[in-house]
Write a structure and sequence with these properties.
By secondary structure, the chain is of the alpha+beta class. 49% of the residues lie in helices and 6% in strands. The chain has 77 helices and 29 strands. The strands form eleven sheets. A six-stranded antiparallel beta sheet has the order 23-22-24-25-26-29. Helix 2 (26-41) crosses helix 6, helix 6 (83-100) runs antiparallel to helix 10 and helix 60 (1419-1434) crosses helix 63 (1489-1500). The longest helix is centred in the middle third of the chain and has 38 residues, at 1172-1209. The protein starts with a helix and ends in a 5-residue tail after the last strand.
């Protein structure tokens, strides 16, 4: 760029001033900088300073209109031809030069870094960064460490985890306020400030001058670029443009912060210096530009609803313009915030809700303090204005990072925190308006968590800047904007307002940054104390909480189903938990000791005031409105939790903080309403409100919410119950549950408030609630450890749990500082005390179990607590599950055989303050209810359930356990009629009331009831009635009336008498309001007591007369030691016995009465006559129950059938023990095989016109290609140095060999010399089931029309076997004829080998000698062709076409015999690589090789090989005219026979023969090929050894050449081979390079023999397998060392008499068809003529590596962290970015981007592509960020699971918990096994299509 242009660029529109050197060249810049630095270093530096200012003024001129540059029109002009960015770059260059003062910028950076006192790490990270948190070292719960500091520190044995940062964060290493020093890493342990030299003055001198201008310039840009968004148009686009342009400047600042402490302190000075700011930004100078910028700044302030102190408007007069959405318009005029009016301006708001808005407005503007908090901002320094713009631009990430990078500077930290607090209200307003509130929230918290986690700092800001006032006020204002009128209780006149949960503010959790800051600062004791002492704050806070009281009101739909199910309840529960409960727990954690009593009194006082206001606002008197429920009562819960804390920790007297009785009555109503509504919801009474109401009921008790919701509610009810009149409380309960009318002795009743179908479950609900209320001790005296233990036992009883789910399910104290931290010491110790660990098991079938904890036996025995289980179950089925498990335990341990009832569990003692609670058990009302229910159950009324009886007995037992005093017997005997208050029971003690006989009861019944008829006689005479009256007839008892009266009494009584409870007289005639008129009074004769009812119940339950016999009559001991284990577990009978025993123990009178009752022989209970109508309702329930049971039974039966079928039919995983499929029939004499079709069920042979086929799955496989030749398994690379190279794999070696052959020999001949299919070979497997091919076609048709989403694609021919559901994709036709070849073919013939060789040759030449000529198209041949097509299409083209001439038939020929080879080789691998185990292997039973051979042979014979080229000739005949080949030089020669792969030759020979093959022909072929193989072995051996060995062998062998069996001696043959090959150049080329190949060992005869055997073994194994499949012969089993001899004799190579010979010599198997030496020299001649020209290659081709090891997946490291740390930051080699979802292939170690669009090629994503290249369609990938393995198979994929488990045997998918993970070897073995056996498709069930997007 020319100098002038540059100057123009820098100077903007003005002409450059001439006196300065033109700054075009870096050199000049440096010189200028040096000159200025020198000038400034002089003592009198005024001139230098002015010169510098002028230069900066020019370089950093902000007059270049940035917006214009952004629009691009004037860009060229402004940038002086260099584009808009050029000028900025130039300015940055200048700054760098000036800072460095003439030196190099990099050297300058290094110099500054040297002065860095690095005591803190302070590394700042953004969202998604992987960091660590150690709870052992953390003081603040928010403490976090970067990976580097974590690994450098010592955290062994600590409770740490790795986590993905949600909002961003910073490393706290070195900050002792946040973490313990023991956890610091090596770098930050040293307090290094002492030994760091002082910074030389001149080093940073320039920075102090340049930076203020630079930052001011940045601020001017920000001012320029900001345009107030127009009314509705979001302006993010413009803002982002400005930010993009400023990117380099902000990055420059960020780099400065990274230079260390010295530079940071300069920056701090610059940012906080108020003078600098004033001078530069006041806008008073003559500079027009600065003025304009200042104006823009003022406009921005104003438009944000903020006033600049100088021009303060009187608030309220300010007219908001329609365009801007000021807070004034939002928060005050429209506090109603009806949806959609969030940003509306004043004019639109004049609807009916205006009045409410006004009320709010007045209330809030009253305090001037709020005013200043919300609306005044004055900026005094760069830092403050920078933060202002950061907020205005919605927290750009770069700016946030810059501001946070500065935090290690202490002075800055304080200044910044104060600035942040000053802008807090403004942050809230911006957040509310933001369209990207999520990102913005994260950025805000990213900053605030760094500031407020530090207690010292938080305290300082609280004191100096009123932090608490600001936070509470801002929260209050925020919620103001979305208030609506509460409809609870009194819809018309209610004055209460609640938040509207449908509002975006709540729905999107927009408030969470502010709330989380608040929770964070309340965790500091000093701050919390200030809060608790400040009465004004407490009042405001309670005000805030009351906004949530009664929100999200549900009204029961009575007519039709609600149209739209609102999901606002999520928002409501989240809001109560986060905005109310968590701050509450935070405050509670500081009220732990006696000294803090005052705080509790404060909170309780203001809480009660707020509650009183609330009751007034909703006009609440004493009856809750019907059919309404809200689950949100935060004020009640605050009150309850502070009460609990006061009694538990602060030793406060409970009564001193309780209100009067009237207030208690009001307090209990709403929590009780919730309990009743829960029962209603579970009784399906709210079903018309949709599913969401069930969701609310579940969330209310769910583990994360229960201790902030249901627990405080129950506790509050317990407190009320302990202080209120018990009769009042009990009757209130039954009235709330709407079952009062049910509690009558009459057999019929009318319920005015409840349908009959709901009565039973509501009654169960009421009784269950009473049981919970009376037995729960969570807040009534249990210690923390006892609570933890009870919670844990309850969860474990429902189900076995994993460690992490237990942590999740046990409600921890939500405040992190509470002491019970999950994973803390007490958790683990309690867990080990109550549970046993079950290690993960691996079931075949692939379901991966996790490590589970299961309750110990003694826990079931002594600690199982059904009450706790009921309280904690979210789903009702969990209660049943717990009972089932309990039953199973009792059966197993022999404690109880039948169906047990929930056991009765002893409770921890009550805290003395709550003793009053037990009065509920000793009040007449309850006793009357219990008596009535026992009577009804005995008389079989209304089909009351067992559950009701169970609860009734439980309550009686609770009463006996908690009876107040042992009553003296004398007192009891006095009990005469004169002491009766009424005619039901004499006193209130359950023990004495149990024996009280009730003779007659007057009841009100419908006219139709049977009782009426019975009593009409009695009522004729009035005398009889009155006489009855006096003999103690119990009155009609109306609970409702009782309750009403009590309430009136309590209200009317003056408060002084509040504590004396007066028992009222019973009103004898009082009917329920609204009860139907046709009720009449009847009198029933009862003559029972509770005891007699219990004894009769015993008889009824046991089904025997007089079954109860008091046990103490036999064994007086029982009364002395009452704890008898035999009564602990059992059913209802046991429970009754236990209760009677306890009753007898408690009083001698009871004992006597029980004995008396038992003496009277009880008459049998009369069978009751039931009216038809009653029968109907009765039966309905019964029938339902029975139907349910029947269904269960059916399902169970079905499941067991299915299971047994699956076991027999499908054992994919374990080939050891399955049932043979009916493919083969055992008797050899059967002429034809019979097949069953699994679709039509018919049996029959496979025929030409109706062929049968085997269900098969064809898949391409590269498993074979993964074999390597070394035993050491490859490791997954975990450092840059480790790499995996594929060239030692089997596939690579074969590839090289084929291309080498193709270079020098004729193509068609090369394609017969080797096999392919090592990669992408087609593997065929079957489940063994057969079907008619036409049946299969119609089956496929039906699948095609089936719209159900299957996991497979029918269009690709995929289906599941109709019988065993195994995945398949083709059908292999069965060849007609027998399967076991008939004896004719098996008989050994005595023909000589020469004859056989001729026959073989003739048979091969004869075309199509099939029993069926192929020309006639039959169904069978069509099917065979189509299956061949399927086989070809299974693999990709590149794995089939190896010929140089595309489409040559040789290709197909090669492919077909290679398919056979692939299947044989794979079977060998499945057998472990050898045949030692022998046996007709299971794979054989299920193998389809026989059928496959027929198909292949049929197609191979279409290509007859020219007899000229048939290798058979070369093997069996001597060729005379050797020289003719020499003539035609130009055409390439054929492959020498010694280079041929013998196994391939075998397959070619066999498949070219007409099928079925004769056994002797097969043996003949094998014998001939063995001679070739042996010769190859000798040649390879000769090449391997060195010159001396060769000459020695040549010599010794030559001596023996003329002995009789020279042809069978390896020494002779070897010497002959050596002498033959020495004629060529094969051995000559031995120079230095060849030494590598020579094995240094000396060859002994033994080692030579072993080498030869090893060379030949692979061929023998494959041949034996082939023989086993073709002829059905069993494989013998053997030891490894004798495998060679056994196999060779089994193949008929070894004459029988040889077998005894010891030591065994491989050469004895040879059987030469022609004289050995002739044929060998002929073979060697071919080699020699080739090595004439290519000695190197000739040699390479001769040495074949035959010994491949079994394939393995890569070996993984022990600890997952090593993989994670290396790969999660690794860049992808293709796109050089760090992938979002990195993955690594476990077969070859390649690193790929999962789902990465960056590496997509032709619409295939990288993982899919790699799975095709590496595994021919099968890929196994480890997802680095999730620790999960994903399998890709063709077009489908599935998540396989994880092979890394934590210390508790659990997976950690997506690394959510971040605990250390360790390799699970068993799982990895299972994975590898499935890969090798190709069973992924069968074992893993959850497949889905990946659409090439992985």
């Amino acid at each position: 760029m020319a100098a002038a242009a540059a100057a123009a660029a820098v100077g903007g529109p003005q002409p450059p001033q001439p006196e300065l050197p033109a700054p075009g060249l870096a050199l000049d810049k440096a010189a200028t900088a040096a000159h200025l630095k020198a000038a400034l270093s002089r003592p009198d530096n005024r001139a230098g300073a002015e010169e510098l200012q002028a230069l900066l003024e020019r370089v950093l001129s902000a007059e270049r209109p940035l917006t214009a540059a952004a629009d691009g029109e004037e860009a060229a002009v402004a940038g002086g031809g260099g584009g808009p960015g050029a000028a900025e770059e130039e300015a940055l260059e200048w700054c760098k030069c000036l800072l460095a003062g003439g030196g190099g910028y990099d050297e300058f950076c290094a110099a500054v870094r040297a002065y860095d006192p690095a005591a803190l790490c302070g590394l700042v990270w953004t969202a998604n960064f992987v960091a660590y948190r150690c709870r052992t070292c953390g003081i603040s719960p928010c403490m976090s460490l970067c990976a580097e500091c974590f690994h450098q520190g010592d955290h062994t044995g600590h409770d740490f985890n790795m986590f993905r940062s949600q909002a961003g964060g910073a490393c706290d290493c070195g900050d002792s306020n946040v973490m313990r020093e023991s956890g610091f890493c090596k770098r930050h342990q040293i307090k290094s400030s002492s030994n760091i030299p002082c910074v030389p003055k001149d080093l940073l001198m320039m920075s102090e001058f340049v930076l203020p201008r630079f930052i001011f310039c940045l601020i001017q840009y920000l001012r320029e670029g900001y345009n107030e968004p127009a009314a509705d148009v979001p302006s993010e686009k413009d803002l982002n443009k400005v930010l993009q342009l400023l990117e380099p400047q902000i990055s420059f600042l960020e780099d400065l912060t990274k230079m260390g402490g010295a530079m940071r302190s300069v920056l701090t000075q610059v940012l906080t210096n108020q003078q600098n700011y004033k001078d530069l930004t006041s806008g008073l100078g003559e500079n027009a530009c600065a003025k304009k910028s200042h104006e823009k700044y003022l406009i921005a302030l104003k438009s944000s609803g903020l006033t600049y102190p100088e021009d303060k408007l009187v608030y309220g007069i300010q007219e908001p313009s329609a365009g801007t959405s000021t807070l004034a318009a939002q928060g005050f005029a429209g506090a109603t915030g009806t949806l959609g009016q969030l940003d509306s301006s004043d004019e639109e708001d004049q609807d009916g809700s205006q009045g409410l808005g006004k009320r709010k407005r007045v209330k809030l503007s009253s305090s001037t303090k709020d005013q200043s908090i919300m609306d005044v901002l004055k900026h005094k320094s760069f830092l403050e204005e920078l933060l202002f713009w950061t907020i205005k631009y919605e927290f750009p990430q770069k700016m946030v990072t810059f501001l946070l990078n500065m935090l290690p500077d202490q002075e800055y930290k304080v200044a910044f925190t104060k600035t942040f607090v000053q802008h807090y209200a403004f942050i809230m307003k911006t957040l509310k308006k933001s369209h990207e509130s999520d990102t913005m929230s994260n950025r805000i918290v990213h900053i605030s968590v760094q500031l407020f986690s530090n207690e010292e700092l938080a305290r300082q800001v609280t004191e100096e800047c009123q932090l608490l006032d600001i936070m509470v006020t801002v929260l209050l204002y925020m919620m103001e904007s979305c208030l609506i009128k509460s409809e609870l209780q009194d819809e018309e006149n209610s004055l209460h307002v609640v938040v509207n949960c449908g509002e975006a503010l709540l729905k999107n959790n927009t408030y969470w940054p502010l709330v989380s800051d608040f929770i964070n600062i309340l965790s500091h004791q000093s701050v919390a104390k200030r809060f608790l002492e400040d009465h004004g704050l407490l009042v405001t806070w309670m005000n805030f909480v009351s906004f949530f009281q009664g929100m999200n009101l549900n009204k029961r739909e009575l007519n039709e189903h609600v149209e739209f199910e609102s999901q606002t309840y999520y928002a409501a529960f989240a809001a109560e938990l986060e905005a109310c409960a968590q701050p509450m727990w935070g405050l509670l954690s500081h009220c732990k000791v006696r000294e803090t009593q005052e705080y509790t009194r404060n909170v309780v006082r203001y809480c009660l005031e707020a509650l009183q206001d609330w009751f007034d606002a909703i006009n609440f008197v004493d009856e809750p409105a019907p059919n309404q429920v809200t689950f949100h009562l935060p004020l009640h819960r605050y009150y309850a939790m502070f009460l609990s804390k006061a009694v538990k920790c602060q030793e406060l007297d409970l009564d001193s903080v309780l209100p009067d009785q009237e207030m208690l009555m009001k307090l209990m109503i709403h929590p009780l309403q919730i309990q009743a509504s829960l029962a209603e919801i579970h009784s399906n009474m709210w079903v018309r409100n949709g599913l969401q109401i069930k969701g609310q009921a579940m969330t209310y008790v769910q583990s994360h919410f229960c201790n902030s919701m249901i627990d405080p509610d129950i506790y509050l009810l317990q407190v009320c119950a302990s202080r209120l009149d018990p009769d009042y409380f009990i009757s209130s309960v039954f009235e709330r549950f709407k079952v009062v009318d049910l509690l009558t002795m009459a057999s019929q009743h009318q319920n005015t408030v409840l349908d009959a179908e709901h009565e039973r479950s509501m009654l169960e609900g009421a009784l269950t609630f009473l049981v919970i209320l009376l037995s729960l001790r969570l807040h009534l005296g249990m210690s923390d450890d006892e609570i933890l233990r009870a919670e844990m036992v309850a969860q474990l009883c429902m189900n076995d749990r994993t460690h992490s789910s237990l942590l999740d399910l046990i409600p921890e104290n939500p405040n992190p500082k509470s002491g019970i931290i999950p994973g803390s010491y007490s958790f683990e110790s309690v867990l080990s005390a109550v549970a046993d660990f079950k290690a993960p098991v691996f079931e075949p079938g692939g379901s991966m179990q996790q490590g589970m904890y299961t309750p110990k036996a003694e826990v079931w025995d002594q600690e199982f607590d059904p009450v706790m289980v009921i309280l904690r179950t979210v789903y009702r089925r969990d209660v049943q599950s717990a009972m089932d498990r309990y039953t199973a335990f009792l059966k197993q341990s022999g404690k109880f055989p039948g169906n047990p009832w929930p056991p009765y569990k002893k409770r921890t003692p009550l805290h003395p303050s709550y003793k009053g609670l037990m009065r509920l058990l000793h009040c007449k009302t309850l006793h009357i209810v219990l008596f009535t229910l026992l009577y009804k159950i005995l008389m079989d009324h209304q089909n009351l359930s067992e559950h009701v009886l169970c609860m009734v007995l439980y309550l009686i037992e609770l009463g006996l356990e908690n009876s107040a005093e042992e009553e003296s017997d004398e007192e009891a005997s006095v009990c005469g009629p004169e002491r009766c208050h009424d005619s039901w029971f004499p006193g209130s003690n359950l023990v004495s009331n149990m024996r009280h006989f009730i003779n007659y009861v007057r009841v009100r019944v419908p006219e139709t009831a049977p009782e009426v008829k019975r009593d009409s006689l009695a009522s004729t005479s009035s005398d009889s009635l009155s006489s009855l009256q006096n003999s103690g007839t119990a009155q009609v008892f109306s609970l409702v009336a009782e309750r009403r009266k009590k309430f009136q009494e309590i209200i009317n009584r003056s408060s002084s008498e509040a504590n004396q409870v007066v028992r009222p007289k019973t009103s004898s005639k009082w009917s329920a309001p609204g009860s139907a008129p046709q009720l009449t009074t009847a009198i029933l004769e009862i003559k029972e007591s509770i005891l007699s009812l219990l004894i009769k119940l015993h008889h009824k339950l046991s089904g025997k007369q007089n079954s109860y016999y008091p046990p103490w009559l036999d064994d007086i001991e029982i009364l002395i030691q009452p704890e008898i284990p035999k009564y602990n577990h059992g059913d209802g009978i046991t429970a009754v016995e236990r209760i009677l025993l306890k009753a007898a123990l408690q009083s001698r009178m009871n004992k006597r009465i029980i004995e008396e009752i038992c003496r009277k022989v009880t008459p049998p209970v009369p069978p009751k006559k039931i009216t038809a109508a009653e029968k109907k309702t009765l039966d309905k329930e019964e029938r339902r129950q029975k139907a349910r049971e029947r269904q269960q039974k059916l399902l169970a039966e079905f499941a067991s059938r299915q299971k047994s079928f699956m076991e027999t039919a499908m054992d994919v995983d374990s080939p050891e023990n399955d049932i043979p499929m009916e493919i083969t029939t055992a008797e050899p004499q059967v002429s034809e095989a019979v097949y069953d079709c699994v679709i039509c069920g018919q049996s029959g042979p496979s025929s030409e016109d109706r062929p049968t086929g085997l269900v098969v799955l064809l898949q391409a496989s590269s498993v074979l290609g993964q074999c390597r030749d070394n035993i050491e398994p490859k490791k997954l690379p975990i450092t840059e140095e480790e790499q995996i190279y594929p060239w030692d794999t089997c596939a690579a070696v074969h590839d090289v060999r084929l291309s080498l052959l193709q270079r020098y020999f004729k193509d068609s001949s090369c394609l017969l010399a080797v096999s392919i299919g090592w990669e992408g070979g087609v593997y065929v497997q079957t489940c063994g089931h057969t079907l008619h091919i036409d049946c299969h076609k119609s089956y496929m048709e039906s699948l095609r029309n089936d719209q159900v989403l299957q996991g497979f694609s029918v269009d690709k021919g995929e289906f599941t076997c109709p019988l065993c559901r195994q995945f398949a994709n083709s059908v292999l036709p069965c060849y007609p004829g027998s399967n076991v070849e008939s004896n004719l073919w098996q008989r050994p013939s005595n023909k000589s080998i020469q004859d056989l060789i001729k026959e073989v040759e003739e048979l091969q030449g004869r075309p199509g000698a099939f029993p069926v000529s192929i020309s006639s198209e039959t169904n069978l041949s069509k099917e065979m062709e189509s299956v061949m097509k399927d086989i070809k299409n299974t693999t990709q083209k590149k794995y089939r076409d190896y010929s140089k001439t595309p489409g040559s038939p040789d290709n197909d020929f090669l492919f077909m015999y290679s398919v056979a080879r692939t299947n044989l080789e794979l079977e060998l691998i499945h057998r472990g690589g050898n045949l030692c185990s022998g046996g007709a292997s299971t794979a054989g039973k299920r193998s389809c090789l026989n059928q496959l051979f027929h198909v292949l042979a049929l197609h191979m014979r279409l290509y007859s090989i020219d007899s000229e080229y048939n290798p058979w000739r070369k093997l069996t005949q001597l060729v005379e005219e050797v020289n003719s080949q020499q003539g035609n030089e130009e055409q390439q020669p054929e492959v020498p026979i010694l280079y041929h792969d013998v196994t391939s030759l075998l397959l070619i020979q066999i498949l070219m023969m007409p099928q079925p093959l004769r056994k002797d022909h097969f043996t003949c072929i094998v014998k001939v090929l063995f001679t070739l193989l042996y010769t190859q072995a000798l040649v390879a051996l000769s090449v391997k050894c060195n010159e001396e060995d060769r000459s020695a062998w040549k010599h010794t062998g030559a001596l023996k050449k003329n002995t009789c069996d020279a042809e069978k001696s390896h020494e002779v043959l070897l010497s002959f081979v050596i002498s033959e090959l020495s004629k060529g150049k094969l051995y000559h080329e031995e120079g230095t390079q060849e030494c590598a190949m020579v094995s240094p060992i000396a060859w002994s005869p033994e080692s030579m023999e072993k080498y030869l055997q090893d060379f030949c073994l692979p061929f023998l194994r494959i041949t034996s397998l082939l023989q086993h499949h073709l002829f059905g012969e069993d494989l013998p089993s053997c030891q490894e060392e004798e495998e060679f001899s056994i196999l060779s004799s089994c193949l008929g190579l070894l004459p029988t008499f040889y077998q005894t010979e010891h030591p065994f010599i491989s050469a004895s198997c040879l059987d030469w068809p022609v004289p050995a030496f002739d044929i060998i020299s002929q073979w060697c001649f071919e080699i020699n003529s080739f090595t004439e020209r290519h000695a190197e290659q000739g040699k390479a081709l001769l040495i074949q590596e035959a010994r491949w090891k079994l394939p393995h997946l890569l070996q993984l490291p022990e600890n997952y962290n090593t993989i994670f740390q290396y790969y999660h930051r690794k860049t992808c080699s293709v796109c050089t970015k760090v992938p979002k979802d990195p993955a690594v292939c476990l077969v070859c170690g390649t690193f790929v981007c999962l789902k990465g669009l960056c590496c997509k090629q032709q619409s295939y994503c990288e993982c899919v592509l790699h799975s095709q290249n590496c595994g021919a369609g099968t890929g196994i990938f480890l997802l680095i960020n999730a620790s999960v393995i994903i399998i890709i198979r063709g077009h489908r994929f599935c998540l396989w699971g994880s092979v890394y488990l934590d210390a508790h045997g659990e997976e950690d998918r997506d690394l959510r918990r971040g605990k250390p993970l360790y390799i699970c070897k068993e799982r990895y073995k299972v994975l590898e096994q499935q890969w090798i056996s190709h069973t992924f498709d069968h074992i893993n069930k959850r497949w889905g299509p990946h659409y090439n997007g992985l």
